[in-house]
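Fold these two proteins, one after the other.
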Amino acid sequence: MLVKDVMTIAIVKVSPDNSVRQAANVMLENHVSGIPVVDDEGHLVGIISEGDLIRRTELGIGAIASLAEMAMPAEERAGAYVKRSSWKVGDAMTSAPVTIDEDASLTRVAKLMLERGIKRIPVTRAGELVGIVSRADLLRAILTAKLDETAAGDEAIQRSIAVRLAENTGLEGLDVTVTVADGIVHLWGNVETAECKRAARIVAESVRGVRGVVEHFSRPDS
């Protein structure tokens, strides 16, 4: 599934010349936590979010400099003052926001959100803004995702589980053995920690056709 399959195309936008108050009102009216900022030509120039507005002087932020702020260069402190005090969206927004192409995978989106600590990403096509993808869109993708196809039969189930155990599960190298009888999965091996045992069970349970899981892991020496 690609970004263009889940993104929101009815984009709520503001201009860099709009007021911060207008931007806050648009967020509240549309129940969103961030909105793209576009210029008169429709080019994306930034994004303004709750994170930007929570630092505003209207909330009493920044009136008295902290010790950390006092140690900042004067130019950096001046820039922070402008961002929290100016009435214009163009001054308060986050410039050069992270963007993603509409043909990117949802895996790439999720990684970007995790790496950058962001909740929404503007979507582009040939550099032009065509949508926005949010964490809520990814949640909807989870709800509509189809289960992986697995051929019928115990042997096919066993092969599928073995392949998944070798992926990024934390179980690689633990020599987990899998047998399947009438859809019941039996797990064997020297798996000692509760988290690794839980991971092995979830790997098995995630395969279509599995009717149950029985653990036979060896217990650590007392």
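Now the second one:
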Amino acid sequence: MSSFPAQAARVRDHWMPPLRRMLALRECVLHFTPYGFRATWHHLLVSAGVPVWLEDDPDSLLRALDELEEARNLWLAETRAFAARRRTEKAAGHRAPRAADSWRTSWMTHSPAPEAHSNKRLIEVVAHLIEHHHIDAAPALDPRTALPWPLIWQRAIRRGPTIGGGDITRFRAEFSPAGADRRFGTFQLYVRGTALGDSTTTALYPHLSSLRSLSDAAASSGPRPPSPLFLDDTFDHLTMTLELTEEDMAFAFTTRPLAEWGNPPPWSPPPGRTLRLLVPRADVTAAWHEAEPKFERLLS
């Protein structure tokens, strides 16, 4: 793999075939991936309007490269400033980096699905992350995002340990302790990458009971028509039903009217819009078996 500048030069070479230029752009993304490769690649294709037939708009490759490159330049400036600070700290005898700088050695953020990313330009995302890492705080949530990107963003820089089970893109239950009493914190359920909870502080025990009930339903035999589903306090902003088929669990939910429950979290669907998401029963059972012993140890 050659360097980012070398591949960027190939993208800008109008004498090269469009497909070769696109492959060079792909190499650039491999060098700098703020969201991880797949989500960064998806963002650039959508943002720059790259067509299926590259000959229809070859300049779209330049628009994608320009967006990626301006974000990378900002990141390189931050990296150079960090390197200069570390040289000064080492000269003063501080050989180990600060714990607050550990985020620099991993992805800036993470998106579990290619489509789950912010619609802002990459330079805005990178600047936002740098700013809030500097002040040791979580970024403000973006209410305009349809997918649960704000919550994923928040998770990426969460300070406390998170325990749970399951796959966030299928079905996952997790809990992040907060404060001295680790039985209290943030409980979240993800159904097909969609966050259901409002991320407010809550007790773990009631949610453990609700998760056990979901696991029991997943293990039951035969189909079941839609019935109301109640998942304790951090899900009060939603009206939910659960339907069972022979192999799947169908979660249907809509946000309650604002006048009833106040402002819902930014990642919830607009009031009046119902989402229906299918999850294999086996995924719910697997998430329970992975999460339950961890939750029980925390409560013991």
